Amino acid sequence: MRPTGWFPLGASRTTSRAEHAAAGPDSVQDGSSAAVDARKAQDAVGVGDAVEVGDAAAAGAAVAVVVGSQPSVPMRPAVSVSPVPSGPHPGPMRLGVIDIGSNTAHLLVVDAHRGGQPQPAASVRVPLRLVELLDADGSLGPDGERDLTACVLDMRQQAEALGVNDLAAFATSALRDAINGEQVLDRVKDATGIAIRVLPGEEEARLTFLAVRRWFGWSAGRLLALDIGGGSLEIGAGMHEDPEVVASLPLGASRLSRDWLADNDPPKRAEFAELRRYVRAQIAPVVGTIYHLGEHTRAVATSKTFRSLARIAGAEPYSRGPYTRRVLRREDLAEVVARLSRMPVEERAGLPGVSASRAGQLVAGAVVAAEALDLFSIDEVEICPWALREGVILRRLDWLTSA
Question: Do β-strands 197-198 and 233-238 pair in parallel, antiparallel, or remain unpaired?
Fold first, then answer.
């Protein structure tokens, strides 16, 4: 069954798995040539030890053996042996994902195949600012719905023009929180033919963690991943591709700017201090849950907010490419937060790595970053170029190539 929210644009390529061959148990009598081979396999591993797959194949199957006067060894369970895969990987497929975030709608198109790193083919961003278009009652008004519909329709047309085979669309915090979100998305689907799936916060954290794990690999050990979006902060931690602990907190940079820092620019000292207390109170309960797992090996941060803060603190510009190592140190971040809290928005927009559209929410985002690093006792975070969109694509690619 095709997961919801995905649309084939042209022929979608999938691969099939060869049927597994199972080796069944054979009953071998002592004195036969098969029994001799079996005894050799038995001697190699010791009586009563488990037979490895290679040993079982050498013996022909699981066997019962009598050695001298020793009692008969119980029949060992058969071992299923699958054929070694052969042939080339499936050919590349062009995948697209439309991400409706709280600040921006983003179309990402990649060329990918099983076992290969997805390669970006196109990227389109549209500043929607849905989180700022929510009415006082928490609903998305007609203007926001009109802008969203036009944006999704345009992105679908661009995906088709780019030759996308498979297209997904999802939404995060702004539409997750809108009280009329379902009704709005139903009308968007009728107008565009695209069903936008609203991701629960915990699933957003899991998919972001998957992207981080694939980027850094298993050698990174136990990961702690932080992602500051427009509407929420996602946290994930664990040893595997699926995190052992996830949390989604209402600490997005746009949300906090609107709710806490909208009256004064730059914010007053009392407003700033109150926001810090609120952020700490939200994050603190998650800290003990994650440290119960054991200390992380590496702390990683994703999202535009963290990239901007790292750039202000002296990290290499993103134009140097995704493979350039970038870190954000806690002591440097403390200085950045102090500077930002005294700057009006026009000055913040002139800082390296800060766009005019993001300058207004950077103070709130910096507070979330600083408090998270402090509460988790993180000396530095490494900036990961992959995040939620890549996680969605990786999950989709896994599904397409595992049938």
Answer: unpaired
DSSP 318: G
Rounded Cα distance, 354 and 362, in Å: 8
Backbone angles phi, psi at 46, to 5 degrees: 90, 140
Parallel/antiparallel/unpaired status of strands 6-8 and 166-171: antiparallel
CB 174 within 8 A of CB 130: yes
Q: Note whether 245 and 320 are within 8 A (CB).
A: no
The token pair that represents 366 in the structure block: 């910096």
Which runs of E-coded beta strand occur in 6-81? 6-8, 21-22, 80-81
Render pLDDT for 89-126 as a digit per residue (tens, 0 to 9): 566 899 999 999 999 999 999 999 878 899 999 999 99
**Residues 225-281: tens digit of each pLDDT:** 999 999 999 999 999 999 999 999 999 999 999 999 999 999 999 999 999 999 999
Backbone angles phi, psi at 281, to 5 degrees: -65, -30
Q: Which residues lie below 8 Å from residue 112, measured CB to CB, with a gap of 6+?
A: 92, 93, 94, 95, 118, 119, 393, 397
